[in-house]
Amino acid sequence: xxxxxxxxxxxxxxxxxxxxxxxxxxxxxxxxxxxxxxxxxxxxxxxxxxxxxxxxxxxxxxxxxxxxxxxxxxxxxxxxxxxxxx
Length: 86
Known about the structure:
Elements: H1 15-18, H2 37-85
């Protein structure tokens, strides 16, 4: 607004690149003693973010597919209504 600068957006790396799947097998934390607690917790947070993003991408793909199917069904329905009217 009045002389305020726009905030610069920071490009963060994709969490999928930072996640180390050798530390967590999907059921429990694998503590090999090689890492500190904060590194294990950070990896768990990254895994949660990876799961969230994967779920969001899958739901978006499902929604797009459903919208395409609905569009096709509406087109077929409109065609059948026109052919019945003739």
